[in-house]
Structure formats: C-alpha cells, structure tokens
Design a protein that fits this description.
By secondary structure, the protein is α/β, with parallel strands linked by helices. It contains 15 helices and 19 strands. Helix content is 29%, strand content 22%. This is Microcystinase C.
Length: 498
C-alpha cells in the first residue's frame, strides 16, 4: 500500500501589510530550500508532536509505504504571493505524477490560507490534487482548529479531520487518526460520507481555547459523538477571524460510515451546540494598568498574554506597548518576549555579554503595535537561538530563533530574536538563560498556545488589552469581504437542529 503525503501550511492575516513570499516558506519549512520530501521529512518529523509525526506513526504501525512529497510552511503573516503558492503546488503535483501506484493521499494543510489569487487558498490545492489522482483515490486532509473551512474544501476531499485542541497538542494524534482511517478506506472497510455546516458566527482566539470553558465541555460532547455507532469522526473549526474573506468563521463537519442521513443529523446537532454557546465565546481583556496593579500584589509567575501582537496569527511580534508601561512603572522581576528585532539582537552580539548598548527596541514593523523604545540596555546573555521544543506542542521539533539576546532594563528583562516565532514553549526562554518559573511576570507574544506549557507554572493568566492586528476585538477591523449577517457583528436568527 502506497500513500503519499504533504501540503502547504499558512495562516493568513489579511490585515497584515507583510506579504508572504517563497523565501518565507524556504526559511520556515526546515527541509531545505528545495522543499525536500522523502527522508528529509522523516528526519524532521519522526517522533514529533506534529501532523506528519502522526502520519509516520500510522505508517510504522500499519506497515504501509508513506511517501512524503513536500511539507512547506511559513510563519503566519499577510497574503501569500501567487509565485510562492504556485511553486509549492507545482512541486507537489510534479512529485505526485512521478510516484507510481498511489493508493491514497494525506494532505497536511492549515485551512486559513489566503493567496493573492484566491481567498480560499486550500481549495485550489485540494482540487488540483483531486484532478491529478482522479475520483477513486481517497484523500484525507488534516486542518487546523482555526481553519476557515469552505464547501469547496469539503467537496474536494473524502474526509477532513481538524485539530481537537487549542493549544494544538493533538496534532500527532490527528495525523495518526487520518492515516489509520485512510487505510481502512483503501481496504474497503469503511465508506465515509461527510456533512458540512458553516455557521454565521465569528469567535476570537482567547475563548477558542479548549483548556477553558465553554470549549472544554463542547469538545467532550464532540468526543462522545465520535463514539456513537456509525460516526467515524467529527470536527469543529472555530475559524480565523483576522482574515477579511467571505468564509471566515465557525464551521463543523461530521463523517459517518456510509450513512448520509446520520451525517446530516449529527452535523446539525453539532452546529446547534456551537450556536448555543455564541455569547460565552466572546473574550474579556485586562488593561495594562490593571495588570500591573494585579501583578504587583500577587505571587507569580503571572502570564500576561499579548495576543494582539501574536506572530502565530500574523502580527509582527515587535510591539512595545506593554514593555514601555513596565519600564515606566519600574516593575521588578518581569520578562517580555520574544520580540522580533534582528537589529537589536545583532547590536547586542557585537557588544558582547556585560556591555551596555544604546538600543532602539521594537516597533520597527508598523505603527500599530507601539513605537521603538530608545534606551540603554545591559546585555545579560546571548545565544544562537537553536532549541528543541520540550512542551506538549510541537514536541521534539527543532526550532531556530537565529541570534538571540537577553537585555536588562531596570527590573525588566527583554528577549529579542532574529527570527519571528510565537513564545509557546518554556524552552524558548530557557535557551537564553531565563527560568520562567522564577519570574513574577511573563509577558508572552501569544494568544493561547503558550497555555500548553506555561499553564503548568502560571499562578494567573490574563488576556491583554493591547493594540495590534491580532487584537481580539471586532471593532478593531474594517471587514469589507466577510459574509453578512454574522454574529456578533450583526443580529442573527438561526435555528440549527430545529
């Protein structure tokens, strides 16, 4: 049995002015500038907490030949340039054509990609693969919980399996599930029938977190549904609201074994559960001054999640609003990170540990996340930025920040890096000499993913009320292409399951 795998992953923030280029994919994919498949993918992802880690697990257990063709990804940012998308798609299709006797396809996609040519970035990829392999070869796609799933996507694949967790700690399990289900399809043991629903509903990242209510209880209901006779898998996609496209928002799918009526009944039931939670899924934010007052009188470590500047959602990750407030308040024993500031990192490396540099920190990308802070800063530590994820998310995957520096300004430590990455793993601070458990306050450039690892040590977690292109506040965005009416922007009446 021969199964090919691969795909392109990008979460596109259309409110970002930074286009996503082919060079971004070449830098972030980790399999060489030629997007090597085959052994390069096995070497990078075997025994890791990733979708391809799960594909490889399934291949090992079920003894099928897995042939990874390409695994391309770039950090979330603005619209993907057509040259980048076309190059990666054509590489995948060319390698697919060169692979004989393919029995099935596993597509490792995100679901919230927007390209210069198409708001629904994944659908053309899926459709091109379907056209190449024909109608009889089964295709399963794995998508992120933030996917803006469309009917085109659902029609192009036999099955879509979405992540069940946010933070995304179940990627390996979902990849394994996809591989196992595809084998059952190839053997003729099951005949999946998939039903899809899109809700007139937008939600923001903080309350999409499956470690807190109401998502925690919702997902328990989803798991119980998946245990019912005839149900093969169920997916809740909470959507990515920072994409001004028609399809942005919540959707769900249920796949049954050759029972279309059951699939329709169950997806309507699932949509109803989601709709009933619409008011509970709206976030509450804590202003900076309230956070500082709270942190000064409570034991740490307290985590302040600056999700508005979250690079995991396309933000520049060099915002200075919280840092400036902490410096002005003369706050003690705080660390802010990780700011994407190659210029400051290079200056610190030139000066060396123990030097004091005249720094111009952050605020270099745009004017929506704060202005640069000019100040003397003590260089406490330097490193090359090479680390391995130790936390539950992406466990085992090698990461590269490039040259990093730990700066000290009064009682505030600032971590700067040369590459833009979300702070979601304590190892990302340990690599530069910071022990997060020993800090009173940790300001993370992250919305939710940090909870997977930092949640174990945090005494309190507060969602930041800060400016930025990933701010969880609908008033921050001028939607022009989003379908309307949609809740909570509009009054909407709908009766799922009625």
């Amino acid at each position: 049995m021969r199964i090919v795998s691969g795909g392109i992953q990008h979460e596109t923030n259309t409110f970002s002015h930074q286009p996503t280029t082919l060079a971004d994919f070449e830098r972030d994919s980790g399999c060489g500038p030629d997007f090597s498949g085959g052994q390069a993918v096995f070497d990078r992802y075997r025994n890791t907490g990733t979708i391809h880690g799960g594909y490889i697990d399934a291949a090992d257990v079920l003894e099928f030949d897995l042939i990874p063709l390409i695994c391309a990804k770039a950090q979330p940012s603005g619209v993907v340039e057509s040259t980048a998308f076309d190059t990666i798609l054509n590489l995948f299709l060319d390698r697919l054509s060169e692979t004989p006797a393919v029995d099935g396809v596993l597509l490792d996609l995100h679901g919230a990609m927007v390209t210069a040519a198409c708001d629904d970035g994944e659908a053309p990829f899926m459709e091109a693969v379907r056209e190449r392999v024909g109608p009889d070869i089964p295709i399963i796609a794995t998508l992120d919980l933030h996917a803006n799933i469309t009917q085109r996507m659902a029609d192009a694949c036999d099955v879509i399996i979405g992540f069940d967790t946010y933070p995304h700690v179940d990627m390996r399990a979902r990849g394994r599930e996809a591989g196992e289900l595809l084998v059952r399809m190839i053997r003729g043991e099951v005949q999946p029938v998939q039903a899809y629903r899109q809700l007139p509903l937008l939600t923001m990242p903080p309350m999409q977190c499956t470690l807190r209510e109401p998502m925690q209880s919702l997902m328990q209901n989803v798991f119980r549904m998946e245990d019912e006779p005839g149900v093969l898998t169920a997916t809740v996609a909470m959507g990515f609201p920072f994409a001004d496209i028609s399809a942005a928002g919540v959707s769900c799918l249920v796949t049954t074994n050759n029972d279309a009526a059951l699939a329709e009944k169950k997806v309507e039931e699932l949509a109803g559960w989601l709709w009933d939670l619409r008011d509970e899924l709206q976030p509450q934010l804590t202003p900076i001054d309230e956070m500082i007052e709270f942190a000064a009188t409570h034991d740490g470590p307290i985590v302040y999640a600056d999700g508005s500047d979250n690079p995991g959602g396309g933000a520049p990750c060099d915002g200075t609003v919280v840092l400036r407030a902490l410096i002005e308040a003369k706050f003690q024993n705080a660390v802010v990170g990780i700011l994407h500031d190659p210029e400051t990192a290079a200056l610190a490396h030139q000066a060396g540990v123990g030097a004091t540099i005249e720094a111009r920190v952050g605020g270099k990308t745009d004017d929506r996340h704060g202005t640069p802070i000019e100040l003397p800063a003590y260089v406490r530590a330097l490193c090359d930025g090479h680390f391995v994820h130790h936390g539950p998310m992406n466990q085992g995957v090698v990461g590269e920040f490039g040259p990093m520096a730990l700066l000290l300004v009064g009682g505030v430590e600032v971590v700067v890096s040369s590459n833009r990455k979300q702070l979601l793993d304590r190892e990302m601070l340990r690599v530069i000499g910071v022990t997060p458990e020993h800090r009173r306050l940790i300001v993370v450039k992250s919305a939710v993913h940090f909870r997977a690892d930092f949640g174990e040590c945090a005494t309190h977690i507060l969602d930041a009320d800060t400016p930025g292109i990933h701010r969880p506040d609908y008033a921050n965005y001028d939607y022009q292409n989003l379908r309307r009416p949609i809740y909570p922007l509009d009054n909407v009446t709908v009766d799922f399951g009625g």
